[in-house]
Amino acid sequence: MNEHAKERKASRGILFWIFFSLSALLWIILFELGKNTLWGWALLLVLLLGWAVFRVRRLPRRGFFLRLLAFFAAWLLLALLFVISGPPERAVPAAAGSNLQSTEEIQVAQGRLTGLRTQDGAVEVYAGIPYAQPPVGELRWREPQPPEPWEGVRVCDHFAPMSMQPRNHPVISSLMDLFGYHRFQISLEDNWLEPMSEDSLYLNIWKPAGDQRGLPVLVYIHGGSLTTGQPSYSEYNGEALAREGIVVVNFAYRLGVFGYYADEALAAESPNGTTGNYGLLDQIRALEWVRDNIAAFGGDPSQVTVAGESAGASSVNALCVSPLSRGLFVRAIAESSGITAKTPYHTLRSLEQALETGAAIRREFGADSSEALRALPAEKLLQSSYPNDSMTVDGWAIPQQPYLSYEQGLNHETALLQGFNVHEADFFCMGLRVDAEDYAEKLRPLYGDWAEAAAEAFPPQEQVPYYRYLIDSGGTAKGSYDLCVSAAWFTYSHYNWARLLKAQGVPVYTYYFTKDNGGLGSNHAGELPYFYGNLDKHPDNYDGSDYALSDSMMRYYVNFIKTGDPNGPSLPHWPAAAEAEDQVLELGTEIRVVPDPYLALYPLIDRYQNRE
What domain range is 27 assigned to? Predict the structure, then answer.
């Protein structure tokens, strides 16, 4: 072999090892992001090693096409392995740790059950308690039915499956955790997925350990645009509040097409003439279960506070005006959403709109009736292009537009703690570029003829550097645009809710969350781990100032749940709306009372809402 040939061979060898190393790194990253199983990882290493050995021992003198064929064969095998070794489903444990002790038996209406004590024994957790019959078969799209009794002792040590919902591939979810939520961790112990099922109507309870009596109760409703979400999510885990003497309850409810599909035939077969609100009715059924059983866990059924974030807050708003939930709670907490506008921007629709969507879904699946849809597998229904992300003014669960019920005094919360974050809309607007030239025009769908006035109130500004993301389309007016969208979609309803309750003499406490951090920051849902004391679930995202703020926020929360007033010793005073009109409590690097930052926009939204 001449020198030139040797050089070419050496060059090909170097190129192969560079390419092989990059390929191996890519597949290792994909397997980590994809949460692939341990046996998949083992075979990955075997295949990579086999590819390298085969290339060195068998292919050096083979032709180019044979080497190319070997490359494609190796990648095909790796891709096949990636698919077949994907993560299995596994129920989420009720509490973290190993060798956890079981609780004493508790008697509820349906039977006896046990839960788990946390590692330190201070909190008891009961997960996966049925509060309704599985809404499957003939019970799909019917009002939830009381749960059946069970024999023996039910072991409630794992969360039940989350409700049916669209689910991203694990790689996409991991990338979102890495770049959006900043909570991704390299681990070989998270190679599994949370189960998902139409049979999901179960609740979870956290309580202080031991024999308890008369404790206040918090019932939390998760968000997710009424289409996604699960009660096992770490950011609103109830353990920290239970340590403060609160019995915390959360639960799954029907979502999307399963929770909010509407059909006239379903209304006709319902003893109550309702359709389009099955998820909301699940929430009411859960509250009824709490009323009937929470004393067995040390809770006081006459001291229930209902809370929620995002679509969960809109659901709280609906519960406040639903005659079906009267007497099931006394106080309300709503974070980052509501439906008090005359025409809410999201989460609520008329019966006519709901029925139109229902008819479109039947056409979409070629079904001539809801009975035909009932025969379809749940996974098939998930493929609907209609999100069903709104509750329905059905005349029964929601008798009329909520603002009318408030004006007529037909709501039943005795106090409200509510609020919003600085960057509420940022994640929802990332796909849109907004420049000064088209800023006002892009506000028109939200502000109508008052879009120019809104643009003048918030002159064009780019997004602040801390909240710029690689996939955000950006623009010279993107920061201002996001703020104006936040005002319309999220904060206006809180402003309106406050003035409606203020007119009734009901105390309202409004916060404004501004704390930057290594996690979600002050984006939508960024406040949750602070109020619920769960910063330690992702400690790398937070520093001492965050823990100090969380401590204060938790104390405000606990005081409100116990008394209806968040104020207490050593806390900065939080004035009710009647004390400080148009003022909010900023929760940031410092806690202080400031003017609502969107006051210039609310009159414009009022005019837009009253345009007809």
Answer: 3-84
